[in-house]
Amino acid sequence: MNVSIEERTHEANVTTLIVSGEVDAFTAPQLREKLMPLCKANREIHLDLSQVDYMDSTGLGVLIGAYKSLCAKKGRLVLTGISPRLKRLLKITGLTEIIDIEDGA
After folding, report:
1. Fewer CB near the last or first residue (10 Å), C or N of the chain?
2. Where are the transmembrane segments (predicted)?
């Protein structure tokens, strides 16, 4: 499966990435390549995951890396459009305790 990533800049230092498809060991590097430079250039990043069908531990690692990068500069990572299945995965791993999740996006 492939992943597609669309970037939208809303205002200064705030960018949204709309991710579609599966984020796994094969596609997570694409997400990392797009996301990490944005973490250095922005104070806030929103990841719209409403079209993500599947995410494995490699994808979770990308989220953690982005979170740490943004926290180091007092930035913010926000996940939106989380499916119940993905929310369960984030909850099991404890990421719901540290990463901001907005419902209804």
Report:
1. N
2. none
